[in-house]
C-alpha cells in the first residue's frame, strides 16, 4: 500500500467519503488510489472554486467534512475565495493539495510555488507530509483538525513521493477535542443581562436551526428579550413552524436604527456585530456606543451547553413559542422585479427547500417575501466573497439529494464560478438556479453613492455595467449542459418556476429585472 | 486630492495607463478617482484571474506594467493562479488591492482576511499603505518594484481610509535599479565553454525575441554550438526570418535523449532546465549527470550586456545567420485531429500573429506545424497553471491592437477563466479563440500512465472525462457575446479559420478532435 492508498483508506475509515476534485498531475497517485475505492464519491469540478464552495455547502447541510483535491499552489489559489467563505461559515473542509516530490522542490520548476504560504493565509491547520509513512497519520490529524471547534479549514500538502512511496496502515481519526464551554459566571451574567431592559439575544452558528434554535427562542421568551440573528448565517432555518426572529441589516444607518434601543446584547454562537464595511465618518459597530455587548460564546463553542445553561437559569424549558405561520404572498401583478420575483419564489418554494442566496442587490426583497413561506433553510455567503452560490448549492444538493435546492444569484456574482453548472448537470443535482440579470454590479453603484460620489463617469460605468455585451444566461446554461429559460414577465417567471419545482434535476432561470 | 486620486495621478505620471479591473466595495474611492481620469484605460474583467492573466499578456507584448484592481483577500486569491504564471514569466504586474479601513481591521467583518499573507505567497513586493499621505509614494515604489529585475509582481494594499483621506502630491516613479550583469570572469568561462565539444547555449526571457535573439544566434554560430530554448517561453519569436533553434521537450525520456550529448550548457536568460514534474525512479534534471551547467545569467539579469560580452569574445557580431524560411504545410487530408488542425492553423496564420498556446495535449503538433510559418510570437503558460490562455490573449490584444491574436486552448483549460471571452467582446479585441475539444483532461491520462498506472476505473474516469454532459463551446461563446463556430472536419475548420482571419474582432472556433 502506497502513501496515497493509506490516505484514501484513512479518509474512508474516518467517515470522509465525498471528494470534490480538480486534480492535476501531482495528484495522480491519489487519483489512482481513489480509483480503487469506489465507496469514495468523487465529484469533478471544472474549477477549484467549485470544489471549496461545494465542500462548504456540503458541510453546512450535512455537518460532515468533505475532502477537496487541489493542484499545487495555483490550484489552491483558485480555491482560496470559497475557502474564505467556508472559514467564515465555520465549515469543516479537508483540502488535499498535491505538491512536487520532496527532492524536486529544490528546483524552480514551472509549478513550484509557495504551497504552505498560500495555505496558511486561509487554513486553520496546514501540514506537509514529510514521508509516505506519515501520510495516514497526517491525514487522520487533518480530519480531526477539520472537525475541531465546530468546523475548520485543514490543508494537507502531499508531495508526490509521499503518495507513491510505501505507506503505513490506515489510521482512524480520533474525535476532535471537546468544544469550549462558557463559564458558570458568564452564564450567570448573561442570564441577568437578558432579563434587563433593552436586552437582545443574538444567536448564530449551530443555534440557527433545529432544536438549538427552538431552545434559544424559549430562552429569549422567558427572559422577555428580543431574539436576533446576524445579517448572514451559514444555515438559517426559516418559514412555517420556526421561531420568529429579527435579522440585522446591511445598510449602516438602518442597522443602527434597528439596534438603537439595545442596552445589553448577548452573543451566542456569533461574534459581536460589525458593519460589513467602514464608511467615512460612520462607526464600525452598529450597536449603540453605550450598550453592553456580552461575548458569551462564539460559533466555535458548545452552544448546546450554553443555551441549556441559560434556559436553566431562566426556567425557559417549558416556554411555548408561537412559531411563524404559513403566509404566502398574493400572486404579484405588474412588472417583474425583485419584489414580484420574491413573491413568486415564496409561493412555489416547496417544504424543506434549501435556498442558497447570493442575489446581492435583489436579495433583500426575496428574503423578506420568503420569511413566512414553507419551512426552508437559507444559506448565505458568509465571507462576502461572491462566487459562492453555485458551488455551495452543488454541495448542498450532494448532501441532501431529497431536497430541492434553489440558488439565487446575481449575474455578476454567478459569473465567478459558473463552471459549477456543469457539475450540477453531471451529477443530476436537483438545483434550480435563478439568475437575477440586472446587467451589472449594482451593489457597487450603491456603495459609490454611500461613499458620497453622485456623478458616475465613463471609467466607473465601465467597471459597473455588464450590459455590453449582454450575458446570455440561457446560452451559458446550455453550454454547461443545463436547461435554461429566460423570464421577462411575471407570467413567464411563474411558468418557469412551476416547471422547475415539478421536475427534478438542474435548470436555470434567467430573470431579467 | 484624496489618497486614491494621488495614486491614479502617480500611476499616470509614471506611465501606467492600463488597469484591468474587478473592483469591489473597498475599492470605491479608487474607482471614483479613475473615473475622473479618462486617460487611464479601465478594462473590466468578470473574474480576477482575468485581470492578472491579462496584465501578464500585456506586459509580455508591450514591456509595460499594467495595474490590476482587486478586492481584498478573496479577490486576490482569485487572481493568484495567473499571478503565479506572470511571476514565472518574469512579467511586471502592479496589483492594487483594496482593504478595510485601518480602524475597521480590528473587527472580524465578513470580508476581513489575510491580505498581506496571501499577497506575500506570490508577490515579490507587498506593502500596505499606512496613511492617505503615503499612498502616492507607496504607489511610486510599487511601480518601481514591478519594473525591477526585468519584471516583478508588486502588490499595494490600500485600506479604504488611505484612499478617502487627504493624499499628497503625485509622485513619479524613479527608474528601477540597473539590471545585474554577469562578471567578466563568468563571461570568459562561458565563451570558452561554448567553444567546447557538446556545448549548447540555452537562451530564455528577453533573449527569445528581437535583436537579442539574433545576437544569441550569432554567438552560437560563432562558437559552433547548439542554440536551444526552454520548453516554455514568455515570448518566443518564431517562423519566417527568425534564427533556427531547438526547443526542450515535455516528456522526460525524450528530453533526456535530446540533451544526451550535452557536455556544457550555458544558460542565458533562464534557469537550468528541470523536468516539469518528478516521476518515480527518474531524475529531476534532463541534462546528463556529468554535463557542466553554467548559470551565466538568469532572466532577471542584463542579457544585452551578457550577449554582447559573449559576442565580443567569440567575434560573433558579423556572423550571417540563415534564418528560417517560410514553408507552409500542405493542405491536410483526412480526419480533423491535432496534426491536421496544426497544419490548417500554420497555413492561415498572418504575419505578426500573436499565438497564445495552452492547448495542453494538442499543443505539440501545432507548435511543430507552425515552426516555419509566417513570423509570429508564441506565448506559453509559464507557470503551468492552466486558465492563462484567454486572459493572456486579452492582455496581448490590448497591447497590440494591430496584430491578430490566436488563442489555442484545450477545453479543460479554457473552462478555468472562460469569463475572459466577455472582455474580448466588450473591448472588441481581435482574438480568435480555438478550443480543442477533446472532452477531458487528456494530459492526466498520460500522466497516470507515466506513473505506471494502466487501468483506469470509475473514479479516475470521473476525474478525467468532461464528456457528460458535453460542453457546448458555441453556446458558451454566445453566452459571453462572442460569435462561435464548431468544426468537426478539415473543411469546416478551414472555412472557420479563413473567416476568422479575414475579419476583425473576437470569435471562437470549437475544434472537435
Detailed description of the structure:
2 copies of one chain form a homodimer. By secondary structure, chain A is of the alpha/beta class. The first copy, chain A, folds into 3 domains: 3-164, Rossmann fold; 184-314, 3-Layer(aba) Sandwich (Rossmann fold), CATH 3.40.50; 338-512, Rossmann fold (3-Layer(aba) Sandwich), CATH 3.40.50. Helix content of chain A is 38%, strand content 18%. Chain A is built from 20 helices and 18 strands. Chain A has helices at 3-13, 28-35, 48-62, 72-89, 115-120, 135-147, 160-164, 184-195, 210-223, 252-258, 303-314, 338-348, 363-369, 389-399, 411-414, 420-426, 442-450, 458-464, 473-479, 490-502; strands at residues 18-21, 41-44, 66-70, 93-99, 125-128, 153-159, 199-203, 226-229, 236-238, 246-247, 264-268, 292-297, 353-358, 376-380, 405-410, 431-437, 483-487, 507-512. In chain A, the strands form 3 sheets. Chain A has a 7-stranded mixed sheet, sandwiched between helices. The first copy, chain A, has a 6-stranded parallel sheet with strand order 2-1-3-4-6-5, with helices on both faces. Chain A has a 5-stranded parallel sheet with strand order 10-8-7-11-12, covered by helices on one side. In chain A, helix 13 links the parallel strand 13 (353-358) and strand 14 (376-380). In chain A, helix 3 packs parallel to helix 4, helix 8 (184-195) crosses helix 11 and helix 12 runs parallel beside helix 13 (363-369). The termini of chain A are far apart. The model of chain A has no long low-confidence stretch (mean pLDDT 95). At the A-B interface, helix 2, strand 2, helix 4, helix 5 and helix 7 of A face helix 2, strand 2, helix 4, helix 5 and helix 7 of B.
